Amino acid sequence: MKILTYKGAIQYRRISKKYRILIRMIKLKYRKILRLILKLLGREIKPVSTVVFRKLTAIILNITMLAMILGPVFYFSFYPKPVKSAQDVYNPSANAAVVGGFTSPADAYTSNDVYASEGSGDDTHDFYNYNISLTGNTINKVEVGYEACGTEKLGIQVSWDGGNNWSAEQVTASMLANCSTTPPPPDGLAGPTYFDFTSATSWNATLLNNTNFRVRVRHVQQGGPGTNYYDWFPARIDYNPPPPDATSFVNDDEVGLTDGGRISQQITISGTNFGNDPEAGNRSTTTTNVKIGTFQIPDSDVTSWSSTTIVFIISTSINVYGGTSSLTVTAGGQTDSSPLDFYVYPDITSITTPSVSNAARETETIVINGNRFGSTTG
Question: What's the pLDDT score for residue 283?
Answer without folding.
Answer: 97
